[in-house]
Amino acid sequence: MKIIQVSGRANTGKTTFIRNLIPELKHLGRVGVIKHLGDHEFVLDTKKDTTLFFEGGADISVGIDAQKSVIALHSNNLDTILSYLKATGIDFAVIEGFKARSFPKIIIGDLPSETCVLRNPSVNDVLASLSLFEDY
Fold first, then answer.
1. Beta strand pairing call for 69-73 and 2-8
2. Containing structural domain, residue 111
3. Which site in 17, 107, 122, 131 is 20 to 30 Å from 26, CA atoms measured?
4. Does the pTM of the predicted model rise above 0.70?
5. Distance CA 127, CA 44 (A)
6. Statement: residue 17 has pLDDT above 70
7. Per-residue confidence (pLDDT) for residue 30, from 0 to 100
């Protein structure tokens, strides 16, 4: 599984860049995305049974509707989540944030980084440079 990490300061276009990258990567394989929420807590719908199961201590709680599944895991460890994505057959794990991790990074904007391999690239630049990114 290839790790493509995208970092940058707030409001520099990271999410927009990733949204444009995903469909192009999907031509090459399965894509998973992990977003670092920082101090912002992701809020589950407190009226749903899946949230009650999660809050009750289930290690994994899954809700499935007609179009998608939503999975809540009792883990905030990036490596645990990457291992989970790899085990499910994901070919490309796109990570937004986690600036302190040392994966080769795409930097959007002017954020300093010792592990930057591409700065403000186009989607085509990334596709042509996939060999620069680490395999997990």
1. unpaired
2. 2-37+50-132
3. 107
4. yes
5. 34
6. yes
7. 97
Q: Which two tokens stand for residue 73?
A: 């895991």
> Tens digits of per-residue pLDDT, 30-58?
999 999 887 666 666 667 788 788 888 88
Pairing of strands 31-35, 92-96: parallel
Task: Count the domains in the chain.
Answer: 1
CA angle 106, 25, 5 (to 5 degrees): 25
Domain for residue 18, yes or no?
yes
Domain CATH number, residue 20: 3.40.50.300
1: nearest Cα among 115, 84, 70: 84
Calculate the CA dihedral of residues 51, 52, 57, 58 and round it to 10 degrees.
-60
Whether 88 is covered by a domain: the verdict is yes
**Is residue 42 situated within a structural domain?**
no
In tens, the pLDDT along 65-84 reads: 899 888 888 888 999 999 99
Tokens 């912002």 appear where?
40
